[in-house]
Amino acid sequence: MPPSLQAQLASIIAEIDRTGHANMMRLTVLKKWFKDLGRVRAFGLWVAERAAVRRDITDGEAGDLFALARAVLLEHPPAGATPDFIETERLYRRLCAFQNDVVHQRCGPVRIIRNHDLLLVEDGLALYLDVRTAPTDAYRLAVEDCAHYDGRYGRDLNGPSRDKLLALVGFVTTREAREGAAAAGDAAARRAPTG
After folding, report:
1. How far apart are CA 162 and CA 146, in angstroms?
2. Cβ pair 163, 12 in contact under 8 A
3. Separation between Cα atoms, residue 178 and residue 7, nearest integer Å
4. Which of 83, 87, 99, 195 is most deeply packed, by most CB within 10 A?
5. Strand-pair partners of 104
6. Cβ distance 169 to 161 under 8 Å?
């Protein structure tokens, strides 16, 4: 039996503890887990919510977008409920427009990103709203969320990545527990006599 995803993520964390870093390609173990669209959507929303509150002090339009993201994703929905789809879609469009500057290089167009956390909110909402639905899209978002630049190792999983990976293990564990509870409830409903 192959090791669970939690065990595979724990081995990445252990490698960071042992050597100071791990190759971000180790996160490819997530691709198989993300084959379920419900997991992709839930992960996108989870990343967007976390990035919305993780911001540095920002003013101007970026600050307004962070405030709007917190309002739409965290303050308006009742506890445990998903955010309003129309408000979330509006927020997504505003985020796309905010960082829509492109510079044309010899290799092709390059999008200019002024705020990484706002990009994480945008990309998370793209998954939640089904703009992007492939397991590789969710995997790329996990890499963008967890990877960190360090002069000794370059851009990979190191230092601050450890806490983000621990949070990811918590997300996976919680999601699988909910799926198990829902499956058990469905099975019990099928066995119950109709009356």
Report:
1. 8
2. no
3. 19
4. 83
5. 109
6. no
Q: How far apart are CA 88 and CA 69, in angstroms?
A: 8
pTM of the complete model beyond 0.90: no
Residue 91: name the closest of 76, 102, 107 by CA.
Answer: 76
At residue 155, what are phi and psi to the nearest 5 degrees?
Answer: -95, 110
pLDDT digits over 144-191, tens only? 999 998 888 788 999 889 999 999 999 999 999 999 888 787 677 677
Q: What are phi and psi for residue 104, nearest 5 degrees?
A: -90, 115
Structure tokens given for 113: 């990103």
Q: Which amino acid is at 103?
A: V
Percent of the chain's residues with pLDDT above 90: 69
Return d(Cα 109, Cα 5) in angstroms, integer.
36
Alpha carbon 61 to its chain's center: 23
- Residue pair 135/32 in contact by the 8 Å Cβ criterion: yes
Q: No. of H helices and E strands in the chain?
A: 8, 5
**Cα 49 to chain center, whole Å?**
9
**Separation of alpha carbons 79 and 85, rounded Å:** 16
Return the SS3 of 102: strand
